[in-house]
Amino acid sequence: xxxxxxxxxxxxxxxAGFFNIVDRDAIVKHLNELGGDGWEMVSMEFIGDTAARLDxxxxxxxxxxxx
Length: 67
Fold this sequence. Notes:
Elements: E1 4-10, H1 24-36, E2 40-49, E3 54-63
Antiparallel strand pairs: 1-3, 2-3
C-alpha cells in the first residue's frame, strides 16, 4: 500500500518581490520546483486577489516509501 506525506504551502512560503508582492509567475515557479521534488498538488485556494498581493493555500502530497 502506498504511503503519503503531506505539506501545506502558503503564499508566505514564497520570496516576495518589491513591496512584498507575490505574483502568479512566482507561484507557478514555486509549485514547479515542488513538483520537481515529487510533490503533487491536491488542492489550492486563492484567499485574496488584490493589486498588492496574491495570497493562497495549497495542499501537496508525495509518496513516501519510508513511512
